[in-house]
Design a protein that fits this description.
mainly alpha, MetI-like fold, 23 helices, 2 strands, flat
Amino acid sequence: MSEPSPAPAAPPVFAVRKRRLRLLGITVDDAIKAFFGGNALVAVVVLGLITVFLFREGFGFFAQNRKNLRVYREAGLEYVDYLRVQSDDHTALTRYLSDLRLRQFARLTQDRKLALADANAALGGFDEFAEKFSAAVDPLRSLVSDLTEQATAIKTKFIVGEDRKEERRQLLAEGRTEDAAKVKIEPVDFAAELKPLRATLPTYRQANQEFARALGELVVHLPAMPDPELQLRAEKFQQLTRDYVAGFPAVEKNLAAWDHTRPVPVTQAFTAFVFGRQWLTASFWQDWFGVLPLLAGSLMVSLVALCLAVPLGVGAAIYVNQIATLREQRFIKPCIEFISAIPSVVLGFFGIAVLGQALRALSQVAWFSWVPGFPFSERLNILTAGCLLALLAVPTIFTLAEDSLNNVPRAFKEASFALGASRLQTIVKIVVPASLSGIISAVLLGLGRVVGETMVVLLCAGNRIAIPDFTVGLAVITQPVHTMTGIIAQEMGEVVRGSIHYRALFVVGLVLFLLSLAINYLAQGIVRRYRISIG
């Protein structure tokens, strides 16, 4: 009996798929191109959707901001703020005077070794002067308080009317005509409402004259300081006070020329956002949406992070690629790359519990008193957040910089060695310059990494919405700030959808998105130039 013939072997899976593709009229190469091209298409579509989403949700902010500024003017809040700024400037002078007292007190207790009671007794004359200087503004503050109540009442009346208009509109949309007719809307006559407020101008002028006279008499009798350095500060205070008084006529002129009917241009709604120095929401007085303090905070934290991450990341890449042994490479590379796997919220907790406290304690050490900004009291500040962001940026910079060093042709190094150059000379003069474009792109991508970070800056930057005081020099890094990413994460869950606050956050997100896009585009351009030069 003959043995059955063996069954034919099944064709390979790849051959079957290839045959099916031929039946569909496409080749394997076409399928591969379609697959990877589809991935690229998905990336483009996602990028487009993000852009459209940000523009759609942020659309209308500038129109709402213009309306917000128009109400600010028509209700008289702008008028009152002329006086409020004058009062706040006096408060700033009072703080300067308090700082001058603290410095005198420190000199008396530390240098002259006086007891606390004796030091306070020695400063009795200065305290009397400071009390009179502080009380001189009381009539102006009283007037500001009265005008604030009047302007707030006008604004509240207008807002109530707008809410009732919206209620009537919704009732009409639902077909409830009778209920809509019951909604009473009281129109606001701003000209009539503002008459009592503007009638206080003569009273202000009289109070202003007395205020200027009191300050002029006081500043002449400022007590003498115990040493030349403090005397210079006292003379500066006197000059600041004279400059402050010299600005009173300009305030009176602004009040006299103020017109609540003057239109608010469209450009003002834009400039108030781009160049605004305040981000103030849910205020009984006036909401301000200025991105400048948030942008300054983001850039300062990112700058500190880069100053720390670039030497560490690039230096580690050069060492691992050019100097380290194989065993060292196998140990160092995974350790650095593992940092990117640490959740940013864990790093944030580390910054709050450990790093911030450690840096503050370090700043109190007398040996480090020469460091700008040391000692400091705020443990959550630019420096703390920048150190943690540097830790996040190091793996990105290290990996990309090491790849760029790998792409340097071996012939470059061999030619350098053949000419008698040492390893250090070859690295510094041949390898690093040849890979400089790649290193720069690595730094830019590291910058994009830290600019978009949220949790670390939200937890460790201090969250104070103010432009840092750059007059203190490098000590600015010890000040707390807020960032664009932090403000979005902090406030997005509390806003009403469609409100001006809601749209303002999306415009901040759009600014952040465009900034990150520009950084990445610049980095990719440098990479392309690098590849062309190597080719």
